[in-house]
Amino acid sequence: MTDATAGDRDVVMSCRVRLARNVAGFPFVGRATHPQRREVLETIRAAAGNDEASIGLAGGRVGADAAERLAWIELASLPKRDRQLLWERHLISRQFAEGDSPRAVAITPDERFSMMVNEEDHLRLQVLRQGNQLREAFDAAMRVEAALSSRLDFSFHERWGYLTACPTNVGCGIRIGVMVHLRALRVTNEIERVKRAAKELHLAVRGFHGEGTDAAGDWFQISNQRTLGVTESGLLEEFAGRIVPAVVAYEREARRVLLDKQRTLLEDRVFRGISLLRSARLLGLDEAMKQLSSVRLGACMGLLPDVSLDTLNRLTIQLQSAHLRAQDQSIEGDDDERAARARVARAALGEWP
Amino acid sequence: MAAPFRPCDHCPKPAVVHNTVIVDGKVTELHLCEEHAAAAGIQLPGHAPIHQLLGQLAQVGAVRPRGPACPECGHTFNDFKSTGLLGCAACYQAFTSTVAPVIERAQGGATEHVGRTPARSDDSRQRAALLQQLVRELEQAVAAEQYERAAQLRDRIQELRPAAPGAEGVR
């Protein structure tokens, strides 16, 4: 196995396990008054505490000798740009980034765990891992859930399971998902078939930033829609054992076909992409994501030995608007931003000329 | 509190009657101005002669204002229809005839939870129900400006609320 395919990193960018819970005794967020939302927030904060150990996460990480602190960030007092930053990093939803009601997100320093309080449900937690590490992400999510449920009463119904504000999320309240890069399937026009197959399996296929976003630059999030009548571990097995391997194999096959039958077309896309990212002086976000996608495909297929996957994965985040503006305070208009995006891309990939 | 403007179903005048009626098993909304309400035989309180009011009392139950509401949180059927969200855990009971088919459709026909259950025992579930009851009473006490009672309720709620980590030992 080559480095590029370890942990399915050539196709799977990252994986997530998310859980929705509500605290018994309070109305759901949409119905709760601001003082009630504040109380929910304080109740959950008190139960979760301020470090990884108190939510069952310490000790699992190589190189970390002590439990890290959990950063609690109140959204209402956060500047707009920082809210967007959190959204660009997949730590909060767009809905959560907007508005002024009492809500907060707790994040570990490595950003592999985050927990939104007072999004649509009182509690939405997520464990994020690079590549395909679904089983590890799942175990971590279950540990956090166990730790929290020993101190909080979650709304639970004998028939419907864990209750959520939206009735279609009841049951396990779990979402298992992978972010996959399906560049070759896009080139070979097979994406629609993937989407149809996913729908038949009760899976949701969404864009780079989840619900309501277009799949910019060939990144797709695939997650389960069924949460009732299935066990958590049953869903995990279906995902890790069946769905992800099938999607990965399908994309790899499309890549192999491209290399065999349309090598010139493939090389053209990849080399144009890398030339553009190394030379552009003004770079819009859509164009950047599109070229990054082609370059990533080339890097995974050995066409660009000097470009690392880590660099490309990092760029998909670093080239987003709020990230550029956080790095460079002098950015004002769109042209400044496009110039900054081009600079960051050139610096990361090697400038030419 | 002024209701948002909504025209009558039959003319552009503002509707003063908002009813949700169930006809042949289908939920229909009714918005009528004063005249059309009168034409439909619905009298506004205060406008109606006493004999008509008495007559209407007999119909209570058949026509409920603003659609059925959750007894726990006041969320109405219309709220659910417009947002797709429920107001609280008790809404699942209050709107069960509508919510159950919605869930089953979204969940590929599944009708029952089979996954993990709360770590805490039945005892804690009863405690959760009591907590819910007390929170409701607290809101009523505050609304009625019964501050002494509200303070007592608050203390009891705080006793029942989960402790901070450390209190039960961190595992």
Overall description:
The complex is a heterodimer of chains A (353) and B (171). Chain A is of the alpha+beta class and 353 residues long. Chain A is 44% helix and 15% strand. Chain A has twelve helices and ten strands. In chain A, a hairpin with a 5-residue loop joins strand 3 and strand 4. In chain A, helix 8 (263-279) crosses helix 9 and helix 9 packs antiparallel against helix 10. The longest helix of chain A is centred in the last third of the chain and has 30 residues, at 232-261. Chain A is globular, with a radius of gyration of 21 Å. With 171 residues, chain B is mainly alpha-helical. Among the domains of chain B are: 7-41, no CATH class; 69-110, no CATH class; 121-161. In chain B, 42% of the residues lie in helices and 10% in strands. Chain B is built from seven helices and three strands; from the N terminus they run ββααβααααα. Chain B has helices at residues 34-39, 50-57, 77-83, 91-94, 96-106, 122-143, 147-160, and strands at residues 17-23, 26-32, 63-65. Chain B has a three-stranded antiparallel β-sheet. In chain B, helix 6 runs antiparallel to helix 7. The longest helix of chain B has 22 residues, at 122-143. Chain B starts with 16 loop residues before the first strand and ends in an 11-residue tail after the last helix. The model of chain B is unreliable at 45-51, 53-64 and 164-171 (pLDDT under 50). At the A-B interface, helix 1, helix 4, strand 6 and strand 7 of A face helix 5 and helix 6 of B.
Which descriptors apply to this entry?
heterodimer; A: 353 residues; alpha+beta; 8-stranded antiparallel sheet; two-stranded antiparallel ribbon; 10 strands; B: 171 residues; mainly alpha; 3-stranded antiparallel sheet; 7 helices; 3 strands; flat
